[in-house]
Amino acid sequence: MAPYESDGSTTGAGGAGGDDPRAGRRKKAARYVVPVAVTGVAVATIGLVPAIADSGSPDLPEISAQQLIQNIAESDTEQLSGTVKITTDLGLPDLGGLGGGLVSGAAGAGGDDSGSSADPGTKLTELATGTHTLRVAVDGPDRQKISLLQNAAEYNLIHNGDDVWGYDSQSNEVYHASAAGDADTGQDVPATPKDFAEQALKAVDDTTSVTVDGTAQVAGRDAYKLVVKPKQSGSTVGQITIAVDSKTYTPLKFTLTPASGGAAVVDAGFTQVDFARPAASTFDFSPPKGAKVTEESDVPEGAAQPPKSEEDLTKGAGEPTVLGEGWNAIAVLETGGEGVPSGAEVGGDFGGFLDSLGDQVSGKFGEGTVFKTRLINALITDDGTVYVGAVTQDALVKAADSAQ
Q1: Which of 334, 322, 317, 315 is nearest to 385 (CA)?
Q2: I need a labelling partner for 162 at 20 to 30 A (CA). Which of 23, 264, 303, 375 fits?
Q3: pLDDT at 14
Q4: How far is CA 57 from the centre of its chain?
């Protein structure tokens, strides 16, 4: 099946979730997602991405990229269940468990009363690295369930009507929050690849190439392969491939590969999927006997918590500005602080550790440090200004110079 180029129209992309009357209702689900702090601006628009190998090339009717995007936006799939496998490889340095310790420490700072191991804002950070298996179930905007399978343990996140429950079987702890209220206090649950594909497709504009590049089978279902690529140079994004079910137009697989090549940065997808309505009992939950239950209202105000949204990340840093457009957009934050000290300034083993994390750079802006992953790069200048985006180190330095 030959590729079909889009005509450059962004109508379908803009419709991917933006005009959906169900979107407001979905905002009453749990808002916990993999923190933007870990995955950055680009991954925040990508979310979970399938790691399942394609099987076969089914013969399907030809369809244009524009029509396929429109069909995704208009898909009325509201019930499904299945198993999703997720692999994330941002190329972060091996901290020997330090990273996990920092996260759990942040969640539990202040003693037992300040947090819970069942808090989704803490637990779902595990999806930011490694390979994980999830069971998902969805029954409309008011019922979703995600089960993170672990060694001899399981973590469940359940949204059922006005209630959001998190349960960590390993610690026998329960976290309970309310999903009721207005849209701004709602809590979106990332239940399926569709949720994240819609976000990625919002980035489609005249800086983007969109094609339908053949077909595949994912989880035993025939699918079209939608390929999204930046037209601009300087982006760290190579391409995004979305496998779209040919009957329901539900995204089944979503893979992001970096411009530098190699394995996918985020690769997640269904190994099994069923579009029948899950049993109502799937979403029932009562705290097990003896479990420690933490109510959202019981967590002291100001208790250390991992950030759950971009607003949390930028709080106190002023309103970010954006340089450039499309895939080369760079967010600029004026923190009012100081830059990162060099290893030479710190000295000792920790100084060497700092140098291993970032590259020292200089330009018209002065001096700074660039911290890199396989997707997101960030430049912190000596005056505390932060430049971050899915762009190369050279692009960050040029942006900092142009701001002078």
Answers
A1: 334
A2: 303
A3: 40
A4: 29
